[in-house]
## 1
Amino acid sequence: MAGEATLNGNNINGDHPAQVNGTAEHSKPKTGIKIVIVGAGFGGLCAAIECHRQGHNVELYESFKELKVLGDIISFGANAGRIFRRWFIPGTAERISDRLDPLCIKLQKYGFNIHKYDGELVMNQKSPPPDPEAPVFNGHRGELHKTVYNYVKDDLKIPIRLGCRITKYFETESDAGILLDTGEKVTADVVIGADGVRSKARELVLGYEDKPKSSGYAVFRAWFTNVDMIKDPETKRFCENGDTFNGWIGPDVHFLFSTIKNGSDCCWVLTHKDDADIEESWSFPGKLEDVYKVFEGWDPLCKRIVSKTPEDKLVDWKLVYRDPLPRWVSDGGRTCLLGDSAHPFLPTSAQGATQAMEDGVTIAICLREAGKDTVAAALRAFQEIRYDRVKDVQKTGESTRDMWHKADWDAVKKDPTSIQMPREDWIHGHDAEVHAEQVVGDAVKKFS
Ligand SMILES: Cc1cc2nc3c(=O)[nH]c(=O)nc-3n(C[C@H](O)[C@H](O)[C@H](O)COP(=O)(O)OP(=O)(O)OC[C@H]3O[C@@H](n4cnc5c(N)ncnc54)[C@H](O)[C@@H]3O)c2cc1C
Ligand SMILES: *[C@@H]1O[C@H](CO)[C@@H](O)[C@H](O)[C@H]1NC(C)=O
């Protein structure tokens, strides 16, 4: 079985000498499978890298015309760190994780200070000891995205076509295909719709249009430089001695504030009740006045921190949600969803981007195992391997939010650890590549 050969051959170990000199990236035999990936977010980029590693031919199509450094804080758990660690710059011993690390928050010294909304410090949650095999990355989404995007384009030289909006997905017996807004048609053995929460690919896969629903919450969020923060003696301390991370938790609201890149950048998110609107956008302008209203009766430090935000950096993001989709793979078995198009996450899970990456690792391995003549079995095996895990991780977004928003403060006083940010081993200890290699043989057989 191919999976066993890889496990025993040690290729999955990032420290294998063949990978240190970068050659293992190209040592997998070519499969001849042509894959079109729609969307160059983290999901699409990771799928492209992993498909390239597994010997497939990949092309990416993306609607944005040029790369822009968009978004604010994004989290990658240890289960993403294991994946990033295996991505070498070809011909060198440099890993993509070496490039991501300087952009990310460092909390070994500081940990996470959790406060009750009135300001009382409830506990300091220590960061787990760093695991060099499974680093954690929390940083600016746009900066991290640019790093991975440039790796795909410049280092791996995977073709990316920008400014291509896909208007239609279709399938025949022998192909899957996309239609661009220019009228151009592109076909391949497999099409992966990594096209985000507003996925167009979902229509083909499900056979109907799936509407998002409101999660009942919205998030004010901002990222800005520390200029005004260090002018104020009360807020200066968050930017002086390296990075910091503080949270304030109240009924139906939580406020998280961190400083990043040695305290030079500041970022906060405020999750609060909001039923008003359903919009799947990242860039709604927000108003500081509206944020202050949420903070009535709260620790005055919260308002003080927020007041340093340039108003044009403030975003009001309505959090939409979707129930788990019945399936991620089309009837014909040549088109599938991946990442947010298949499974949007609430930010409180801190796993949305990481789960999109695990998808990419898994699908690339399934396609290699099944081969060009049985790609439908590969796609169905991919769904089979990923579905329940994704659903369980998705639920942690709700459970963490509810644990905070419905905190019983008398109970928390007796056991402050009950309010800790959960870091569950079944999520973070998972190695998507090792797991897929172990189960792929049986999974593909089941659908062949
Ligand atoms: C602009 C932006 C900002 C974000 N900011 C944050 C953030 O600050 N924090 C955070 O936690 N998460 C953020 N996210 C979401 C986060 O990136 C995803 O949840 C996660 O990384 C999973 O990624 P994905 O690749 O599945 O989806 P996405 O990152 O949404 O990527 C989907 C890609 O598909 C492209 N696309 C969509 N439709 C088409 C089409 N018809 N034709 C061609 N291309 C298409 C989109 O332009 C996009 O680049 C942001 C996403 C976007 C797009
Ligand atoms: C971090 O910032 C402090 C000032 O706040 C500075 O003294 C220190 O040298 C910086 N460290 C690094 C590694 O840049």
Note: Confidence is low (pLDDT under 50) at residues 1-24.
## 2
Amino acid sequence: MEPALAKMGLARTARLALAINQKDGFDCMSCAWPDPGHRNVLEFCENGMKATTWEATPITVPRSFWAEHPISSLADKGEYWLGQQGRLTEPVHKPAGADHYEPISWNDAFRLIAERLNALDSPGRAAFYTSGRTSNEAAFLYQLFVRAFGTNNLPDCSNMCHESTGTALTATIGIGKSTVAYDDFAKADLVIVMGQNPGTNHPRMLTALEETKRNGGRVVAVNVLPEAGLIRYKNPQKVRGILGKGTEIADRFLQIRAGGDMALLQAVSRRVLAAEDAAPGTVLDHDFLAEHTVGLDALRSHLAGLDEGAVLAATGLASHEIDDLAGEYLAADRVIITWAMGLTQQKKAVATIREIVNLLLLRGNIGKPGAGASPIRGHSNVQGDRTMGIWERMPERFLSALEQEFRFPVPRRHGADALQTVHGLRDGEIDVFIAMGGNFVGAISDTAVAEAAMRGAKLTVQVSTKLNRSHVVTGEEALILPTLGRTEIDLQEGHPQFVSVEDSVCAVHASHGALPPVAPGLLSEIAIVCRLASATLGDRHEIPWGEFEADYDLIRDRISRVVPGFESFNADVRRKDGFVLPNGPRDERRFDTPAGKAIITVNELEHLERPPGRLILQTLRSHDQFNTTIYSLNDRYRGIKKGRDVVFVNPDDLAELGLHDGQRVDVVSEWPGQPDRVLPDQRIVAYPTARGCAAAYYPEANVLVPLESAAEESNTPVSKAVIVRLEVGHVRSPRS
Ligand SMILES: Nc1nc2c(c(=O)[nH]1)N[C@H]1C(S)=C(S)[C@@H](COP(=O)(O)OP(=O)(O)OC[C@H]3O[C@@H](n4cnc5c(=O)[nH]c(N)nc54)[C@H](O)[C@@H]3O)O[C@H]1N2
Ligand SMILES: Nc1nc2c(c(=O)[nH]1)N[C@H]1C(S)=C(S)[C@@H](COP(=O)(O)OP(=O)(O)OC[C@H]3O[C@@H](n4cnc5c(=O)[nH]c(N)nc54)[C@H](O)[C@@H]3O)O[C@H]1N2
Ligand SMILES: [Mo]
């Protein structure tokens, strides 16, 4: 609470703290971890408090700021400084050729954007980005506007995040979402946490894992790093937790080599099949497999030929460690596997997640209590935004329902995803870039390429709460539209409105702002979309934008007629606990695939070879950041203070490379046929990461991730496996 008290004072802090994640309060925007039915008075974590404080700060960017700071000088500032300037309070405009933003009225801003959009040769020359904080209601209207304008160019942060998950799960089990409910964690015999750092990124998940353990279940962590929290955890919400020694959350830790998870999963499945062969009829869930799956025989013959040598090389694990994990899996009747960015941001991410499904299916671990596949989502409403239609490839079912409800021809041609948007901007195919939140150039790979592409746009528009890199790397003409945050009371025509969000386990609930808006005249995201849409579309469509802005219930009425599971949205969302969306695999072992069954897949094993003298670098989050937002320069759990310019390397690799802890080096990434990319002047930190694997912080290390390096099938940047070499510094680049 320290930063909150310092920045907001006691009264504001107390008001905020008592409303976070409460049933009549607002949903914490730090992650998409669900709220338990049995909530504590203070149901939030340290990082949730940081995120809400960051938004609820009473500090605002003064009008004089824009005249004082040319955009070119702001482009020399880092994300940390930009975020510190406070909340944005009035719309500003950078005319073509100017180096300053200037205040502009809301009406002029909307008129200007509408004119530019309507002047385009085709609607496909504009792209409309969404970050994952946007509410269901705002997201639904935003995609409605974009599709009514005439394009499916709806890239989102999910393209860089759990896209690989959605791709793998939809094809194999018929839904791109988690198949577990909150209470399943308490019922599981085994939870395998893969490629995820919950201690920092989903801290309240540790409470659920603690329940797993209290009920006799076990937890296994599979990670390149020994992440704090999984290894030793104190529950700050319990006196016992604060005073005690802390629980050892992970019973077993497999320190895997980057990108080795597909090999590990195949090797475990192979052992499960071998156990069945040794004691036929006793290991696999034969009834389940026969009734609900296809593809077992193909998997069986494929894994029979699995090359154990390749598995050991890919994983860096010893054979007995894999045997032990298989033993844990076989001993458990109910198994949950969770995962996050360590798996999704890999070249073979989609195939790896399909292997998770394979392993779970073998023993019927989908669609029964205490078991399932559980991707842990990032942004607090990134999953809901997808449900509401924020996707460049929404299925026909959704598009035709939208068409029927709003009676305009909804475009069917797939739009551009995040990486394709950068390509489109770079190649002159996209002229206008509009962002509903987020920090696109800060978050996407290959910073230098992405920034050059963005500077080539004719118009860029950011709807935001605070300044970031995307406001200072602009198109020829640019606008910033400030918006209300989720902590703030949203009054429309004198009536307080609420919005809704969907968490990682498909529960939807209301979020009510608790604090008065930081400045008068701020518009909600919904109001911004409605006014932009009516300015742009005029009377080309009969969509009642004005009525939607005045009463959010009317938006929910429309959603209830378009999106399955929301049939009585306005009533359900007013229930204290909200409601849980239907989920075929979880509820009734119904798998909505072309085969009508869950699909067991065969995936060719492939892993990243590390060239001699090189390391495989992952880009990850510190304890004191939210994505591109930097709260402080510390990373407490990893022992880093006052500096993010570090590269973590295994001491044995350092010895081999002739380098040492504390030395300053340039991190240089290599991609065939392209010039080197350089992150200059980083301090080496000797750290117990897996052999051959290094780590550096995102977003700074995004300069190293080649635009071309994308996961197969999902097109997600491969942010967790960049081939780099370390050079004793001589290259110096100006990027701050
Ligand atoms: N406080 C805070 N909370 C957040 C966020 C934040 O920035 N700050 N971001 C939010 C968002 S959008 C997201 S998507 C989530 C992200 O949550 P995480 O996915 O936990 O975030 P990362 O820091 O990217 O951590 C990736 C983890 O995967 C491990 N890893 C890397 N490569 C591999 C591999 O090849 N195999 C295995 N098994 N492990 C590997 C890393 O060591 C690390 O522990 O958190 C959300 N919550
Ligand atoms: N190298 C590397 N790159 C990555 C990742 C990685 O692990 N490594 N992770 C990827 C992942 S998982 C993700 S999700 C993306 C994140 O990409 P984004 O979602 O685009 O980035 P954020 O940093 O979360 O966006 C922060 C900005 O959102 C705005 N904002 C905050 N709250 C609100 C609000 O309520 N409304 C509006 N309109 N604006 C708001 C603020 O201006 C703030 O500066 O980055 C991806 N990029
Ligand atoms: Mo994310």
Note: The pocket of MGD (ligand 2) is lined by residues 131-133, 157, 160-161, 341, 345, 378-379, 436-440, 443, 463-466, 468, 483, 485-486, 525, 619, 627-629, 698, 701-702, 705, 719 (CB under 6 Å).
## 3
Amino acid sequence: MLVATCVLSIIFLLESCSGDRFSHLFSEDVSNISFPDDFLWGYASAAYQVEGGWDADGKSESVWDYDAHNHPDWFPEGQNGDVACDAYHKTDVDIALLKYQGVKAYRFSIAWPRVLPTGRIDDINEKGIQYYQDLISKLKANNIEPIVTMHHWDHPRVIEEQGGFLNESLIIPAFLEYATLLWERFGDDVKWWTTFNEPKQTCGGGYDYGSVSPNRQDPGRGGYICAHNLLRAHAKAYKIYNEQFRAKQNGKVSLVMDTSWYEPASDDPKDIEAAQRKNLFNYGWFAHPVVYGDYPEVMRERIAERSRLQNLSESRLPSFTEEEKAELKGSYDFLTINMYSTELAKWRDDEPAGEPSIYDDTSVTTYQPDDWEKTITSWFKVVPWGARREVVWIRDNYGDDKGILVTENGYHDDGNNMTDLGTRGRYHKLYLSNINDAIYKDGVNVIGYMAWSLMNDVEWYSGWQINLGHYHVDFYSDERTRTPKESAGYYRKVVTTNCLVDDCEAPPKR
Ligand SMILES: *[C@@H]1O[C@H](CO)[C@@H](O)[C@H](O)[C@H]1NC(C)=O
Ligand SMILES: *[C@@H]1O[C@H](CO)[C@@H](O)[C@H](O)[C@H]1NC(C)=O
Ligand SMILES: *[C@@H]1O[C@H](CO)[C@@H](O)[C@H](O)[C@H]1NC(C)=O
Ligand SMILES: *[C@@H]1O[C@H](CO)[C@@H](O)[C@H](O)[C@H]1NC(C)=O
């Protein structure tokens, strides 16, 4: 039916076929080549989403706790991180699940206000340190590699009250104290570190257009200032690791970047240019500085030009000093990608200079064809082939000699479907098949995959209305009982056999 419509419309109007141009890419074929033996299989999580214990044992309020307590209407009724999955009291339960699932790695984050309630080094909360030390020791005792995120959006509210990521004279030294403490206390045991999770969301959602805490809005400015401070904090932390810890701890440090994949909507060179620009404004905003030492040229030029048209005396995109560029360049030991969906990108003519916004600075129209498979979330359609193109693009633009780790991927529904093999199970299978193709057909050095998530959790302002877990969590019982869904069984099979189907071929010799 769809094909016939499109054949007809090709004759008259190619544009309306834009969804169908891609239909041949939606294949249910699954690779039967084993993943590499050393492929790092894991699960990912974040402190606010699972821990609970929001004020336990000396922890102070994070920006998310503050929102839950002061803007309860921003969350579905009562669905916040105060108790969440109660992971703070369930370390043994969760380690047993991770062990049963057979994963080699667990990516989790440390809650800054749990270890440093004032945000600064003057007050170390030893009980908070002890919680993470216990988690890390038990992971290691079970041969599960800890992959630790230092900041997954939940900095102390007291830091935010003094300007948060917009205050460079606060956030940079405070983060460096915090990072140094974590390396001092945990660096002998933890070999995989990321400084910040999804800075595009921290800064865009947190300080520019709103959508994540602290949910401040200063379009076209706040996001760039936050990112500038965050990137400088990252680079200086990386330098501290090199100078003080690397020789004896020998770990890896990076930051976690996220983006949807933006595919040109047509062969028109303008759409191809638009897609590249959108990918650079999203992934490149952070990857370019840590790989090459500065923002992508297209960002620097466009934001400077639009600022000039807005009669501003300087660009809304701050610039790095030569010393900062040198610190940033190469400040990563592996590349990262939180992937989920794909959108099509079309050229959009510049708007006349009006109110600043990242959207107008980028000036690309993006959309998803109606006939692409939906999930519960409006922006999130199931596009497995985007995963392959995305990691190929990362390799082509930023290199893969240090490896690319998929730090998150997962499927959205309401969290309650226990027979989710055909939805969530199939989602991971098809995305992983495309990643397998990227490895063996395109030669991309993808080193591991962290499924989001082991269990249902608090999906920020969505509470538990949206969920991605392989285990259901009964948020209405005191035990927060975890129950496996069908997807847990499938993922367990994959990580314990390195194989997506019943029977696999050995990988070609590398
Ligand atoms: C920024 O941080 C500094 C150092 O902590 C503090 O003295 C100053 O008041 C903060 N600025 C704002 C605007 O809160
Ligand atoms: C910039 O200044 C020029 C000259 O004064 C004026 O015509 C124009 O409207 C201004 N543009 C904006 C966006 O304020
Ligand atoms: C649960 O997932 C299955 C696929 O595994 C799907 O067929 C079914 O419609 C889903 N149930 C609900 C209630 O969404
Ligand atoms: C893997 O797939 C290929 C191509 O479809 C097929 O020839 C081969 O027999 C399969 N191998 C196994 C072990 O099933």
Note: The longest strand covers residues 145-151.
## 4
Amino acid sequence: MFDLRCIKCNAYYPPEERIYTCPKCGGLLEVVLEIDKITVTKKELDSRWMGVWKYREFMPVSETARIITLTEGGTPLHVVSNLREDFRVKELYVKNEGANPTGSFKDRGMTLGVTKALELGASAVACASTGNTSASLAAFAAVARLSCIVLLPTGKTAMGKLSQAILHGAKVIAIEGNFDDALELVRQACDEMNIYLLNSVNPWRLEGQKSLGFEIVDQLNWDVPDRIIVPVGNCGNSSAIWKGLKEFHAHGFIDKMPKITGIQAEGAAPVVHAYRDGLDDVIPVENPETIATAIRIGAPVSAPKTLQAVRESGGVMEAVSDEEILAAQRLLAKREGIGIEPASASTIAGLKKLLESGEIDRDERVVCVATGHALKDPEIIIKSSPAPITCEADIEKLKKVVAQLL
Ligand SMILES: *Cc1c(COP(=O)(O)O)cnc(C)c1O
Ligand SMILES: [Zn+2]
């Protein structure tokens, strides 16, 4: 039905093996599905609810698996016509992943990852996280009644995300270091302490995240967009979208492929550098820095997969500044009423930049993936905006203040 394959040395492993990278060469693993055995039709899909499990046939879990779900996926694909006019581009959509149960696309991966954890007989799960992975894992682990350990970089996790991890009952450990340090530690701890690792190096998690690509083309009535723009941190999401669409293509659901375009923050852009230098993997950035904490990552694990996806699809990698990110966050919020977190806004900033440089044609149909909700990080909004005007509790004074604002 499905196997694990090393993308580096092509070794195959049975799905029951609890491994995250290739035991032979250390390469990344991916799940290989027998696409020619999948028989589901578009018509059958049409009668099902939206969400990750609408595409059940493409989700590699056994038929008897106990599926842990919070009805994730099925998020809106907004037609953003005000922004489209501002940017003078032919067609523009925002895929609003903030509408997921815990407010980010990570839920798509976790429904698969935690379902798989149960299948493999795990009793405890763990992850290192910039925030959203921990919020999501905490919620799904709670439903599955699994112990959940999360490692977060001290002082660099947005308040909304941290509070979710705590709320859902995860055991939170603040690591005195950055995300890359936390990931290295949790990988070792999981190996040595028989805990199931649910970072995006886990190939099963990416299988759930494929559904983001499925949904975009499904919502566009199977009319594939020219380009999908994704923020790039650890490279899980961008590579999962690409894998999913390749499977849809192989199955005959779509007849062309979009250009995968990845955006990073200037202070944390190892994949952009590797792309420009023609490398197959990144040279890690030592001290990654950006206000977009979800993509504040110096040593992305799945970089080889994303670099391949971007090149194979004819896309591009671009970096944007924190100022550009904050401006894009405000622009989308004010023009379209959609609140997204800074990492997500990097896609809007990237689109603007790539339109101006001519890399993206104004004739294209473009989808920007807004990965997480604005309320994940309320502090950055308050910090980067003017303070509210104060007024005494007096009607005459209030009228004066209001008159000045109209
Ligand atoms: C995790 C995350 C990203 C980065 O995705 P990767 O799969 O790590 O590349 C971007 N934006 C948000 C909001 C995230 O939570
Ligand atoms: Zn290998």
Note: The longest strand covers residues 147-153.
